[in-house]
Amino acid sequence: MKVVCVGDCGVDHYLPSGEQRFGGITANFARHARKEFRADDEIHIVSCIGDDDGANLVRSSLAVTDIDCHISTIPGATPTQYIELEAGGERNFVRYDAGVLKNFVFGEKQREIIAASTLLVAPVYLQILDLFSELLSIETSGLTAIDFADFQLHPDFALLEDNIDKVDIGFFGLSVDDAAAAERIASLAARHDKLFVTTLGANGSRAFHGVRQVQCDAVPVGEVVDTTGAGDAFAAGFLSRYCHGADVDTSMQHGAQLAATVIAKLGS
Known about the structure:
By secondary structure, the protein is α/β, with parallel strands linked by helices. The protein has helices at 25-36, 53-62, 108-115, 129-136, 157-163, 179-192, 230-242, 248-263; strands at 2-6, 10-15, 20-23, 42-49, 68-73, 80-85, 91-97, 119-124, 143-148, 169-173, 195-199, 205-209, 212-216. The strands form two sheets. The protein has a nine-stranded mixed beta sheet with strand order 5-4-1-8-9-10-11-12-13, with helices on both faces. It has a four-stranded mixed beta sheet with strand order 3-2-6-7.
């Protein structure tokens, strides 16, 4: 299997300490995927970084992984997410600087890597809508899994419905208060025979697989330290099992187990 992860590799900047860690939805997913998918599965990253200190952090962090990197270096700032941790470990995204990712355009070789994927995984959020549009314009013959990363704050159903024919699996981070959004996601999954998974934090997750719905509890941890990256870990755990023949229930349980290991420590 050729898993191609497209999107953001960057820096998680914690406030007020100023501590910086390697992060980004795509980077987080790819690192977990490398551990969770089979050893003979290829894991690729297509992304870009700047020419600043953040880029050095990205390079050094990826150098110790068995991931095939197709990462362009562009003059400017490496994508940075500013994070505050609330009591109980809940992360609060204060500000996001997309940096060079905002105007990133795939090179010819990167487009070839994407086109050859058997599993394409990417996030979409407000700052990279143009990149998402370019990505979905590339023809692939495998599965496409999209993390609608800011759907809780910006539930863009028009974006989802406009691209639903090209999305096989969708991930949505919601809260239990987002019942109306969940119902609409369920309706779309049933109408278009899609697999959509909503993660609900401490309330577990719920999948809508066509007309079928599956609920999975969160795995309890002794202390929640930092919820940053929990959804990325869940998606990697889920897809590593589902794409190799496991049912939705089993895949959700594995995703929940992996997410629990992430929230019990600092960093994504």
